[in-house]
Structure formats: structure tokens, C-alpha cells
Design brief:
single chain, about 240 residues, alpha/beta, Rossmann fold, seven-stranded parallel beta sheet, about 45% helix, globular, SDR_fam, Sc_DH/Rdtase_CS, NAD(P)-bd_dom_sf
Length: about 240
């Protein structure tokens, strides 16, 4: 029987690579994105197992209805909480509204989507949730205080959810990407040679990762390959988090 997955923010970057990996392996995948055209184009490119769901995850009140609509088509086996936003600003310049905005998108929406999907997974006695964290929760990086706080929250939530949901056959794990070659990261690093050198010099493997490296890690967690694994955080970073 075909498994079904949801990937939030699956229309670009790491989410796109993840959705593609799932679809390439015969998993029906709903890609949640805010932008209709971008999300629909991504689904066309990925193939017939990819289905667009146009929805803004900041609309917390609408999340239960959106998940129910997806579940009308059958059980949800896999949830990948990938959507997130970042903001680079000096600590003292971050306003309360800035901080709240990042936490709202990166933590509240992950909590709400997970809660609604768990209701469905619990009925089926099975499921895998994969959260996407970041190097910012592994060590301190300047000028991303709100993002760091949000990703640290994601890792704490991963462990708490894993312990509470194991009794229902639901596993919860987390992938913590290092520096990955995406349009966004390439632009940032190419404009800042000093930072790029710093990144590469403390990455033992001496290069940036590919988005597909994240897709592969998520696939491991999403499937029965990891059936005895829950509550773990997997850095996929070329050794960056332990590099010197």
C-alpha cells in the first residue's frame, strides 16, 4: 500500500529535495507552500506523486481544517516539518515583533501541524515525524538569536514528543543540517568570502552538503529503515558541528 507524507515548505531548497526523495521512492507526498505558482511548479517537476497544498502556516487557526482535508484521502504516515524562516540581525536590534515572528513560524506552526497529524497517526497506531533543526542549535552563531531559539525549541520538542508518542507507534526524530548548497546559502556565502572560508575551514569534509544529503537522512527516519530509532538528532554537516 502506498504511504502518504506531508512536507511543509517543500517547494524549494531542502524541502524540495526531501519531497523528491519521498516521491522517487513511491511515497505520495503533499507539499505545503504559501505561494501557489511556486508550489504547483515544484509538484509538476517532482512528478505525479506530488500534490500541492496552498496554505500559510502562520494561520494557526486554519491548520486543523487543512490537515483534516488531507486526511480525507487516507491515513498520513509521514510528516516532515521543514518550513521555517530566518532573520540576520544584531542582537540588540531584534524587536519583540521580530522575535515573535520567527518563533510563530518556526515553533508554533510545527507544534500545531504535529498535534493535528498525531491525532490521525494515533488512530493508525503508526507514523514517523521528522523535524528539521539547524547547526544554530548545536553551537552559538551570532546575529541569529531568534532562529537559534526556535531551532533549540524544535530539538527539545522532538525529544518530548518521541517519549510521549512512542506508546502509539509514532516515532519522532530530527535532522540538523549543516551548511548546504542552496540558492540562499550560496548567495550569502559568495557575498562574504571571509564567512565562507570560516565555514569550510571548520568543516572536516571541506565542502558544502547537497540538498539531497538532507533528503536521504529524512528518508531514513521516515521509513522502516529506522524502526527502532526515536528521539534522536542527526547532524548532516560534513563534521562541522564537531570540527575545529
Amino acid at each position: 500500500m502506498t504511504k502518504t507524507a506531508i512536507v511543509t515548505g517543500g517547494n524549494s531548497g531542502l524541502g524540495y529535495a526531501t519531497a523528491k526523495k519521498l516521491c522517487d521512492n513511491g511515497i505520495k507526498t503533499y507539499i505545503i507552500g504559501r505561494t501557489p505558482e511556486k508550489t504547483e511548479v515544484a509538484c509538476k517537476e517532482i512528478g505525479e506523486l506530488a500534490f500541492p497544498v496552498i496554505f500559510d502556516l502562520n494561520n494557526l487557526e486554519g491548520i486543523p481544517g487543512m490537515i483534516k482535508d488531507i486526511a480525507k484521502n487516507g491515513p498520513i504516515d509521514i510528516l516532515v516539518n521543514n518550513a521555517g524562516i530566518n532573520m540576520k540581525k544584531e542582537f540588540i536590534d531584534v524587536t519583540d515583533a521580530d522575535f515573535e515572528s520567527i518563533i510563530h513560524t518556526n515553533v508554533f506552526s510545527v507544534f500545531s501541524v504535529s498535534r493535528e497529524v498525531v491525532k490521525i497517526m494515533k488512530e493508525n497506531g503508526d507514523g514517523s515525524i521528522v523535524n528539521i533543526s539547524s547547526m544554530t542549535s548545536q553551537y552559538g552563531i551570532p546575529k541569529v538569536i531568534a532562529y537559534s531559539a526556535s531551532k533549540s525549541a524544535i530539538e527539545g520538542m522532538t525529544r518530548a514528543m518521541a517519549v510521549e508518542l512512542a506508546q502509539y507507534g509514532i516515532r519522532v526524530n530530527c535532522v540538523a543540517p549543516g551548511f548546504i548548497k542552496t540558492k540562499m546559502s550560496s548567495k550569502a556565502l559568495d557575498n562574504d568570502p571571509e564567512r565562507k572560508n570560516k565555514v569550510l575551514s571548520r568543516t572536516p569534509m571541506g565542502k558544502l552538503g547537497d540538498p539531497s544529503d538532507i533528503g536521504d537522512a529524512v528518508f531514513y527516519y521516515a521509513t522502516s529503515e529506522s524502526k527502532f530509532t526515536t528521539g534522536t538528532i542527526l547532524p548532516v554537516d560534513g563534521g562541522n558541528s564537531i570540527g575545529f
